[in-house]
């Protein structure tokens, strides 16, 4: 992914002809190819990385937006309960989300799915802060939620915290159809990336591919498969 303005993590980039938007469109196409030949369909995609700040949230949002602009019915879920950010897309009243649904059996999808400014893309915020995010994510209610979401949406993209440090991302990744692994270009910490991939493999997460973020244009040729 090319570099973008550092302040624009949770911003929809309306200029669909920019290299930035094009890079995420290409990522979507690459993911679609990664799914070809698999015996299961890939509808729920977790986005994660080894360490904080590598570009997971940006990637999840722009990937979901690329699917929506391509005509898919998309839900973007904020699965980073400890450090939520996607609620800003849902505007006022959009704070109820994933934790509320998981913690309270009386909550229905309608309460926690919000419109975003982009047609075709809905958002589920992380929800009310809870002391036990991993327990909630490990609960069967997340499995049934994901099944329900697959019936309602073409694609569900889930932003998660970093793999190293807490178990949350591994739980979500293992429950999704596939995982997109984000690696910050330029300062790839190979050991950390390898450890995180090992941990994802241990929980039998299906890794669809990796994407390098924050790549300077002049460095792009160093990465023949960068997107
Ligand atoms: N392709 C990119 N080019 C340049 N900067 C980027 C790119 N993607 C993300 N960033 C910047 O990197 C910073 C971290 O991005 P982001 O919040 O998406 O990472 P994250 O992995 O979700 O972080 P955290 O682990 O804290 O949740 C932000 O300032 C964001 O604007
Ligand atoms: Mg994030």
UniProtKB/TrEMBL annotation:
Classification via InterPro entries: AAA_dom, Bact_polysacc_biosynth/exp, P-loop_NTPase, Wzc-like_C
Catalytically driven reaction(s): L-tyrosyl-[protein] + ATP = O-phospho-L-tyrosyl-[protein] + ADP + H(+)
Keywords carried by this UniProt record: ATP-binding, Kinase, Nucleotide-binding, Transferase, Tyrosine-protein kinase
A GO cellular-component term linked to this record: plasma membrane
Keyword Transferase on entry: yes
Start and end residues of each AAA domain: 44-205
NCBIfam families noted in UniProt: eps_fam (TIGR01007)
Family: Belongs to the CpsD/CapB family.
Protein's recorded name: non-specific protein-tyrosine kinase
Taxonomic lineage: Bacteria, Bacillati, Bacillota, Bacilli, Bacillales
């Amino acid at each position: 992914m090319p570099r973008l303005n550092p302040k624009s993590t949770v911003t929809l980039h309306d200029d669909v002809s920019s290299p930035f938007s094009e890079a995420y469109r290409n990522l979507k196409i690459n993911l679609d190819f990664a799914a070809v030949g698999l015996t299961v369909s890939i509808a729920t995609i977790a986005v994660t990385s080894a360490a904080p700040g590598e570009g997971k949230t940006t990637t999840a949002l722009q990937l979901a937006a690329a699917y929506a602009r391509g005509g898919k019915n998309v839900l973007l879920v904020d699965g980073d309960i400890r450090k939520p950010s996607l609620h800003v897309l849902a505007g006022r009243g959009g704070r109820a989300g994933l934790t509320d649904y998981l913690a309270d059996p009386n909550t229905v999808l309608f309460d926690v799915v919000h419109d975003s400014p982009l047609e075709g893309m809905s958002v589920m915020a992380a929800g009310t802060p809870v002391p036990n995010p991993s327990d909630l994510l490990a609960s069967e209610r997340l499995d049934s939620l994901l099944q329900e979401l697959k019936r309602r949406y073409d694609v569900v993209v889930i932003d998660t915290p970093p793999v190293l440090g807490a178990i949350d991302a591994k739980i979500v990744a293992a429950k999704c159809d596939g995982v997109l692994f984000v690696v910050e270009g330029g300062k790839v910490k190979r050991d950390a990336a390898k450890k995180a991939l090992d941990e994802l493999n241990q929980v039998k997460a299906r890794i669809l591919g990796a994407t390098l973020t924050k790549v300077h244009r002049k460095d792009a040729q160093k990465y023949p498969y960068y997107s």
